[in-house]
């Protein structure tokens, strides 16, 4: 019998969640999403449970939602929208969870993995933790409520991460507010044991916390601010192309990364994240639902997943293939409520 993809136990007065799908980098299946939502619902009002801890088995915390399963369900399948509805409702439940929610993160935390960690109260990053929202590279968009925190990261770093699918190591994640603490992976078991018996989450984590200086964002903050603060995708690219001297290599590499992404996704992500800075969290989730419904009816998501995860040729054929060919009316259609209405939130 196969092991469960997600494990739950009571450890002292902690509800302990273990993502247990290491062969798939703990990508979230529909079943995992549903099970976690049910566990949180039970623990929310349980007086014996004072906090929740989420950890993972293997070399990734969670590399995202199981996008390949969404792809294989087929365009127009009810299973596709059912997965995203369940996932987005889970993200909202985590954001609103009334007790401490501690994510112990080592390895990749991307996409849907950010959705089940960054919205919680405490995010402890180990040495090999790497954060990214890589969705523009598969013809999708930064979802799971990520626009809420991406739009609030310092120096427009969130937009930089979203357009270029930029990866942040531990120190950068701490600097940007994605992580709340840094601690060694070797201490995670001890942290779990102490949290299960303590009433002071902050004090326990602080005992194990260690400093982590930003790897890149400290030196790049002014440049990121200058490049990404205003304007269209084209103007951002132009500013990157124009950088000279010590910033030329960074500018050229970032511009190349952005140019490799879906033009439609780039336009969507730019508008989405700029709008999210003025939105409450639940409105960001509703916006995600609108965009996801429209994107699932389009072309680039299926082509992006094919190129990245199915054929693995890493050569997506985007349609439209260039930014100037993207119809503004099509982009506008991603920001209106679907015919069956906005997502019902708990």
UniProtKB/TrEMBL annotation:
<dbReference type="Pfam" id="PF16113">
    <property type="entry name" value="ECH_2"/>
</dbReference>
<keyword id="KW-0456">Lyase</keyword>
<dbReference type="InterPro" id="IPR045004">
    <property type="entry name" value="ECH_dom"/>
</dbReference>
<protein>
    <recommendedName>
        <fullName>3-hydroxyisobutyryl-CoA hydrolase</fullName>
        <ecNumber>3.1.2.4</ecNumber>
    </recommendedName>
</protein>
<dbReference type="InterPro" id="IPR029045">
    <property type="entry name" value="ClpP/crotonase-like_dom_sf"/>
</dbReference>
<feature type="domain" description="Enoyl-CoA hydratase/isomerase">
    <location>
        <begin position="15"/>
        <end position="335"/>
    </location>
</feature>
<dbReference type="InterPro" id="IPR032259">
    <property type="entry name" value="HIBYL-CoA-H"/>
</dbReference>
<dbReference type="GO" id="GO:0004300">
    <property type="term" value="F:enoyl-CoA hydratase activity"/>
</dbReference>
<keyword id="KW-0378">Hydrolase</keyword>
